[in-house]
Amino acid sequence: MAEDKQGIGNMPVGVAFVGVLSILNGIAAIVIGGLWLWASGDADVLGEVDTSADEATIYGWTALVLGVIIVLVSVGLLRGSRFARFLVLTLMVLRIGADVFALIMVDGYSVVQAVIGIAWALLIIVMLTTRKASSYFLQR
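Structure for DUF7144 domain-containing protein, as requested:
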């Protein structure tokens, strides 16, 4: 099918888009995690967001580790790995859970940041479960 060969090699455009989007999502999680870890040592910042150093540290490390895993698995996704596809879907669900957790448990957590993170993860899930994407991974 000529339609399925519009991306990188024989990869559908949607899969290539998801791979790049997932890498960007992972990088964003790494940056956010790093910012929370930095904030955990700054009493003024913690006072502004009304959270404890322990909460900021836990969220920071969680976001950082998830970000690194997302980037590594995204590389596998771009290589056409079905297991990587499964892991990306799973990690996006965990990413949504992390943002919901932070909204509930971390006072002062940015609603805008959470909404962007959740929307980004949902977009990745939708793009990775299209008929063309599913067909591509089943052929591998």
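The chain has one domain: 18-138.
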